[in-house]
Structures are given as C-alpha cells and as structure tokens.
Write a structure and sequence with these properties.
The protein has 1 helix and 7 strands; from the N terminus they run E-H-E-E-E-E-E-E. By secondary structure, it is mainly beta. The protein has a single domain, classed as 60s Ribosomal Protein L30, Chain: A (2-Layer Sandwich). Strands 1, 2, 3, 4, 5, 6 and 7 form a 7-stranded antiparallel beta sheet that branches. It is globular and about 50 Å long. One of its GO terms (cellular component) is nucleus.
Length: 130
C-alpha cells in the first residue's frame, strides 16, 4: 500500500489550505493524503464556529500553529474530496483557539506541512473473515 511522507513548504502570505489542496490534486490518481503536522505561524485564520454570528470567525494577528490535521480523499472523477482541515493555534497571550478551517489560512512565516500519502481503494477494500 506504500505510505509516503512529503514536506510541503508554504511561503509567507500564501494560503496554506490552497497549497495542500493543490498538492492533493497533483498527486497520482487514487492517492489519498493526510496532514500529519505543521510548523509555523499564521496571520489570518477563518474557522467554523457555530457560536458566532454567521457561523464563522476570522482571526487576524500572529498566531502559532499548535496542530493542523485533515485529509483529502480521491473521488471517482479523480478530484479531491476534502475530509476536513482542522487547526488549533495559540495567540501571543497563550490562549488556544481552534476549529474547522472554512476559508483562508494565510501563512505569517514559512510554514512546513508534513503530509502522508497512500493509495486509497474507497469501498473496494477487502474484508478479512475472522
């Protein structure tokens, strides 16, 4: 099945989510990816937060990425289906903020994203009898 790791570097000012989607779309057909970790800072984060008006919140400033997780699965047409991208980040005062990314995710520093890729068989996976 061949699990491989990849380092994706995101430059200051680039959208991290767009860079990950682009990487996913450039992967060979039938390849799924999962975000294992990320290191760096973000300047603008849009996350889904049901408790806010409109259901989303936009944070602007200088925030350190604590955790970035998600997955993208191939569809029948070869496109990538977002399995969700979640972020946890900390503000300069140490407060932790997080949610599901629902818009821009702009890098404030160079961001390194570690991605795992593997062949994805979807519903064609064989089941083993016990």
């Amino acid at each position: 099945m061949g699990f491989k790791t990849h380092l994706v570097t995101v430059a200051i000012g680039e959208d991290i989510a767009e860079k990950i989607i682009s990487f996913s779309q450039q992967s060979p057909r039938g390849t799924a990816i999962c975000i294992l970790t990320a290191n760096g800072a973000v300047s603008t984060v849009t996350v889904r937060q049901p408790s806010t008006a409109g259901g989303t919140a936009i944070y602007e400033g200088n925030f350190q990425i604590t955790s970035l997780k998600g997955s993208y699965l191939p569809t029948e047409s070869g496109a990538s289906q977002n399995g969700g991208l979640s972020i946890l980040f900390s503000s300069p005062d140490g407060s932790a903020i997080g949610g599901v990314v629902s818009g821009v995710l702009i890098a404030a520093s160079e961001v390194q994203v570690i991605i795992g890729s593997f062949e994805y068989g979807g519903s064609k996976t064989k089941r083993r009898k016990i």
